[in-house]
Structures are given as C-alpha cells and as structure tokens.
Amino acid sequence: MRKLLLSLGLALALSGFADAKTPPEVLKPYKEYRAALKAGDNTRAQKYAYEAWKEAEDRLGDSKIAGDLAYNYATIPIKMFSKSNIKKRVEKAYSRSIELSHFYEDLAADVEIQRHIKLIDFKLSNVKFKKLNYVPDVTKADMYGLKKTIKKHKKLGTTYEAELEALRAQFYHLYGEDDVALMHAERSLELFETRSDTLPSTYPYVAKLFKGKSLDNLGEKIPAALVYQDVMQNLEGNLAADHPFVNHAFSKWMWIRNDIERSGELEEAEAAGLCECWPFNDYKGKALPILRVPPIMPPRAERSGHVIVKFDLSETGLPINITKVSASSEVFVKSALKSVKGWRFSSVEDMLGEDYDPKNRQGIVNTITFRLSDQNGKIIPE
Asked: 164: domain range?
C-alpha cells in the first residue's frame, strides 16, 4: 500500500484525467511534463509540471487533480542551492497538495501524512545561510505541525511517528544539538521496533546515520563506529550494496576506525564489537586515509556522475601528481581534483613496521562519486 500511495501523485493516469473532463489546457502541459520526466530532463519537467498545476488551479480550483499536480511539481528534484523563490514555490506546492489530500477520501489520512513528511524532508535537505552557517530551512514549528497531523489521524506508534523522530534527529543534529538529536534517533529506532504496522521505510537508516553523527560529535567514537558498522554491513539486506547510506556509513566507519586505532583504543573497540571485516583487510599494508574532503556538487550538475583520479603520495601523506583518468562528465572534474588535493593519508613514518611497501604509495586510483538525489531520496542516474 505504501508504494501505491506514494505513486498516486506521480502516476496520475491520463485516462483518469479524461474521466474527470480535464481541460485541454491542463492536459497539454501535463503530457509535456511526463515526456520530459521520461527523458530525464528535470528542467523541462519542472517547467511543464508547474504550468499544468497552475492551469488546474485556475480552471478546476480545489480538486484532487490540482493537489496531485501540485505534488508532481513539488517532487521534481531541484539543485540544493536553487534560488529562494524556487524553494518557496516548491514549499507552496507541497502545502497545497497537503491541503487537497482530503479528496482521497479513505486514503486521505495516509496521503496527507506522507506528503507532510516529504515537505519536512525537503526543507531539511535545502539549506540557507544564517549566522555564518548553513542551516536547514525548517523550524521546530514545522516539526510540531507534522506531529499534530499524525496525532490528528490517530497514527501515533506507527511508521509515520518513527519517521518523524528520524527527521527530528536530523533537525537537531544540523542545528548542533547532538544530545537532543541522539535522543530522537534512539526514539525513532525504538518506534520502528514496536510500530503497529509494517510499512516499508528507509528512515531506520536515517535514524542510525544521525545517531552515528551525533555520537561522533559528542566524542563517543566507539559507539559511533558500531552504529556506522551496522549500516555498512546492512545485514537486513534492505538496501542495495551501493546505496548512498551504505557508502556514507562505510566512509565514516573507516575514518573513525582509523582515529580509534591511532588513539590506542582499538583493542577496547574490538572487544565492544568493532570488526576487522571487509573491506578493512583490503587496506592492510597500504596508506590509510586520515582525511577525505568530500567533493562539492557542481551547481551545473543535473545528474549523478563520477571522476576516476590517479595520484601518488608524498612521504608526509599528501596527494601529488593528481590526474584525471576518466569522467562521466567534465562538469565534475574540477571539483573532484580540488577535493583530492585536500585529502591526507598516513605518512611513511606511520607505515613503517606494517608490511610497508613504497609501491603502495604510487599510482593510487580512486573514484570520486557525485550522487544527486530527488526529493524522494531516489538517486538520479548518471
């Protein structure tokens, strides 16, 4: 049922439009929107989705079609640093789709809550510059509004409340209140264990990732590494092996594990459950990454991509002789090379006595991945 509900807005059928005697002024841009979406042209899809929505508002007023078209427009991916007027328009579309969700009758409660969750998720993923920091464009009042909606429809103790708590964990972490974020992450995971339904959700992983981030910021390195290890191993099998959550968890796990080893706490960590599991063995005898500066998504990028780079390491662990081997698009190259310049690896001195081989510091090949996702968390392919 969850998949059905989430797809209702996007998969609005033309036959349904016809039955509702949809004006041709709405149908025409809607068809253009569908064609652009199929072609992967988000810019054109956004243009025609907005046009279809506004035509529906003008000609049909309050209606299921107007709500669905507003939701279609809202869920088209936009760039993280899009102009504020675009973000406000998307927020307005989400709000309008929520307002009109009552046209779904028996499914109205689920549709309203799911769209409300998407609105909060959108606001959390779109940041603004405030007080010398980038912060999410969402407030505590927004969070309370979602809780009120869930309570209104008697959905406390369900997947929806668990997802809300995961969003709260993300919210408080982004605002630097990691102790509060940790509390909400743990509450989310408890709710996922005891919830009264079995709706599929990726939010347990969101809760775990922000639990790990909060523990790390609070100086709890070993517990943080164990949380990331849980996501990285993905024993439940609910995520693809190359899912961004898994990749992110592995990256954080490696950094923290290296930090734990350097501080002489590895034995304690292993006793607590830290594994020397794949892919850690692949790094033995090689220079270990100490710091990896994540690449900045180029503003002109409209799809995911990657750059394969090759470099050597200096005796102190600095990448040198950095060159591009190949790239899915030239738009990513400059950002990738700049990212690698900021990386740091273990020095020759650190590696002595650990099966050190100078050849392991030459011709290192690495893939810099850029993953762009839409508002539903779906990765936009290369």
From this structure: 139-218
